[in-house]
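haha ok so turns out i had the wrong file open the whole time. this is the CORRECT one, sorry everyone. sequence first:
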Amino acid sequence: MADLFEKMKTGTKKQQDAYRAIMELDILNDLGRYTPVLCGTVPLGIDTCESDLDIIMEIYNFKPFVEKLVTLYQNKKHFTIKRKEIGGKKAVKANFHYKGFEFELFGQGEPVHKQHAYLHMVIEYELLQKSPHLQEKVITLKKQGYKTEHAFCKLLNIQGDPYKGLIRYGQEKGLL
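then structure:
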């Protein structure tokens, strides 16, 4: 898969603005020890005006991670931090607004290349490469209120849980 973050430098206006915001915050360096990866719709070019910037990370020791997030971002607009459990694994999610973007920083005790957000992005990227016509169809469904995975599943006729279904589909089609 291409380095989507680097491609954002010369992508759409929104991608370029997002790239600059991420670089200004210096998230990738400040949180580098947690292997941050930008995932989601903006790097794929299937975003809408409501799309946020999702950065996922690999976290095992949550206390220093939370402290770092608070130190770095507590002064940002609408800063919140939550601990949760997803798929039986502890996770931390921080949200804030900066330069017109909502950021979602997500940390879980799993390598980023095995986290669902990353796997979904890889599958969606491969699908868009093979079938570029899906881009506008996904965006149209998202504007109608569909979440990204739900939109892909509707278009590909994937039944059941869209998050698990998309990964299963990607595995079956050799996209992962």
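DSSP finds nine helices and five strands in the chain.
again sry for the mixup
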